[in-house]
Amino acid sequence: MNMNNAALIKAAFKDIDAFSVTMDVDWASDYVIKEAVTFFQGCQIPLTLFFTHTSPYIHHLIRTGTMSYGIHPNFIQPSSQGKDKESVIDYCMTHFPQAEAFRAHRWYADNDIYTELYNRGIRYESNLCTMLDVIPPFVHRSGMVSFPAFFEDGAYLYHGLDLNFSSVKSYFEQPGVKVINIHPMHLLVNTPDFQYMRDIKDSVSRDVWNSMSDEIIEQVRNKATRGITDFITELADYLVQKNVPRYTLAQLYHMIRG
């Protein structure tokens, strides 16, 4: 590792005020992923997707080069991606061999995982989650460049925070690189609280979760009260109206790596 990298990264991002919206697909159906992608495309907000699996729509996104992406390995057993760390990494890198970025499911990864992912070509990550705290990009011990997440929909719901964007707008006005993490199911369902989505997950099989149609989404969608979709819509409107710079993680990474 070149120790000059840390200084270069600090200097490169010192005066950058920007957002980067990311999405953990979390085994969602093609219908759900496509609807979520379409939502952000309609707002002209670039996305970085973290893939857990393959599907016709995901293959389409990769084949057409329309989406920046990384891998979303699940090292927590039982995992559909493999029975141990090595097989999970093999699964992800076999299906997405061009990936340079990762974020682990539930943020779980250890030193051995980081080392192996770096050896397999992963060069940057977004695997640290804060609560509306701006942490500048830094060099991880593995050699990867780390882009900490500033906001995650699941964490925000877990803590029962106000779903009116105006209540926390001042946090989003802080200078620096702010990585946003969204889950397509939360966006489609308009999740009002953390338990609401937990109950949906517990009530369906893995196969049903992986293949949810528009009809099923309509049945489970929250229509009774304010939800996370309302918050995200107001956030997206803020980014567009303020014309705040918006980048994919790949664009941010290649600002310093060329």
Would you give an account of this structure?
The structure is a single chain. This protein has 258 residues and is α/β, with parallel strands linked by helices. The chain has a single domain, classed as Alpha-Beta Barrel (TIM Barrel), CATH 3.20.20. Helices cover 44% and strands 13% of the residues. It contains 13 helices and 9 strands. It has helices at 4-13, 30-42, 56-64, 85-95, 111-119, 153-158, 169-172, 184-189, 194-203, 206-210, 214-220, 228-241, 249-257; strands at residues 18-24, 47-51, 68-71, 101-102, 124-125, 138-139, 145-146, 149-152, 177-182. It has a 5-stranded parallel beta sheet, with helices on both faces. Strand 1 (18-24), helix 2 (30-42) and strand 2 form a beta-alpha-beta unit. It is globular. The two termini are 18 Å apart.
